[in-house]
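Raw record, unedited: Exopolysaccharide transport protein family
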Amino acid sequence: MEQVREAELDVAALGSALLRKLWLLIVLALLAAIVTYVALGFVRPLYTADTRILIEDRESPLTKPRDATGNPSSTDYDASAIASQVEVLRSREIASAVIDKLDLTHRPEFDPNARPSALKSFLISIGIGKNPAESSVRDRVMDTYYSRLSVYPVNTSRVLAAEFEGSNPQLAADVVNAIADEFVSQQQKSKQDATVAATQWLQQEIESLRGKVQQAEQKVSDYRASHGLFDVGTQNGDLQTQQLNDLNAELARAKADHAQAESRAQLIRSVLSGGGSLDSAEEVLNSPLIQRLREREVALRGQIADLSTTLLPAHPQMRSLNSQLQGLERQIRQEAQKILQSMEAASRISAAREQSAQATLNQAKAASASSDDQSIELRALEREAAAQRDLLQTLLGRYREAVARTDTTYLPADARIISRAVAPQKPSFPKKTMMSILAAVVMLLLAGAILLLREFTSGRAFRYVDFAPAPALTAAPEPAVTPSRELVAVTPAAPTLDDRPGTGELADVLAEDGLRTVVFAGADGSERVGEIAVASARLAALRQLRIILVDVGLHPQSGLGSADQPGLGDLLSGEVAFGDVIHRNEAAGIDVMPMGAMQKDPPMQRLSLVVGALSHSYDRVIVLADTLADWPNSHIKADLVVLVCNPELDMDRRLDLHEKALELGARNALIVRYTSRDGARESASAAA
């Protein structure tokens, strides 16, 4: 009878095959390493020379333009600026200059396609590959140049690294040094060109501005002349403004003189009218005539005082002297009266001057008010002329600086070579040791893969799960026990069945990763599904797995406790709690949930919740069904369905069961078939 066989990957067999051929794998790896090392000895070595260039602002503060001094933006180099400098180093302008400087077009190393090999010539003749004759020598040299050049910024710094590969180490160093020198030279040349262009532009702008300044100043002069707004050359503005200022000053002086003259006249007037002493009036004391009269008065008073000691007041001489004294006093008062009259005249003159200055100022104010609009227009013209003059002065200063920088040879580039290339001593390609080790590893992996492929194609990489029926237990050394529902309490029978062929393989399947829910079902309901499930679960539990068996069939399965114990049916109907339906099978080391008292129409919508809760608490949830039709696939999603069938079941029926299990939603399906007699062993067949 043709058998359906379940092929399961046998990792141990694969490992054994690799160990048996380990010597061959090592020999092949060593041969690959040796051949690679020898072959690389015939490869032309390439040497890599590198140089380092620092991008920085090298302008001296002494020669830096005044506008650029202290400007932080002139020395900032962000990532985009550094990337731009990288592209400048790779530019065709620098490449052409280096090729011409070192005459690379006449070096065969840079034009390898000039003399193609016989194989390449044949490929070109049949249209495969590019014909070197279609491109110029310079283009081919340029392609080789760029294929060997590498330019990149060093980490996040402002240092650029330029590397060049070549079969000649000295030539590689010369090329990369020439690239760096040309880069710095072009930096200087670009500054020189920019300065010359700026000088020419400034010269044109200055010539244009000179004409504009002359026109603006001419407009100011014409406007002044046409409106009588003459410039007095002072900070006070035009002529009218200066006149107003002068009149204000004159009026202030007239008022001061009038007030002073009036106060002096009032003082003398009060002295004369009040009979006070004339000595308090400064103008009286300063009069020469009064001073002489005072001197004569003092002399007479002295003479009277001298004679009064010997003569009486009625003496004629005393009367004559007193009469002279009174005449002097009258004369002094008359002179004071004259001074008062002169002071009053001066006061009247000052008042007249004040009135005249006030009238003149009022006239000037009226004239100035009428010319305000003209002054505003004049100031606007003056501002325009001043702005043009300032701009001209600024451009003249920059022009002088630009001319000075153009005439000198001091134009520092914004780059500096900090490390020049030297001829490398060791080749950068090929790395014989590293590439030989890599070839050995690749050969080892490739040979191992071929060996494993042979094991797969020959079938030796798979193992097969077998089962023997319970009647064969009579041949076991332990007492034979007829399987029953009370397998939980019978300890000798479980180990005996565990020792049957195929049970361990099925336990290995249950222990594989990726399985959470497994369904055991019979082909027609007569198979001992419970016995096989308990036996395989017991062996799987020995691998530190927490396993629970749940009975959902129409008939109670053996090995899941007594019939009067509460189970799944009681839990679905809500009569008992969750913990009351889980029982421990100490002999097997697993938990079981018997069928219990199942109602006619139990609420199956709760079944998915029950299985989901169990899958979170246990490593494996094994569901037992009498037949495949008893599996509630809409509520229980199975990772694996194990179909137990009698040995008399034909091949077509087994294949139909396998396809039906997959159609019902199983991810994988496994068919287990057992024999009727001990020793008449058949292999279990599986499909996935």
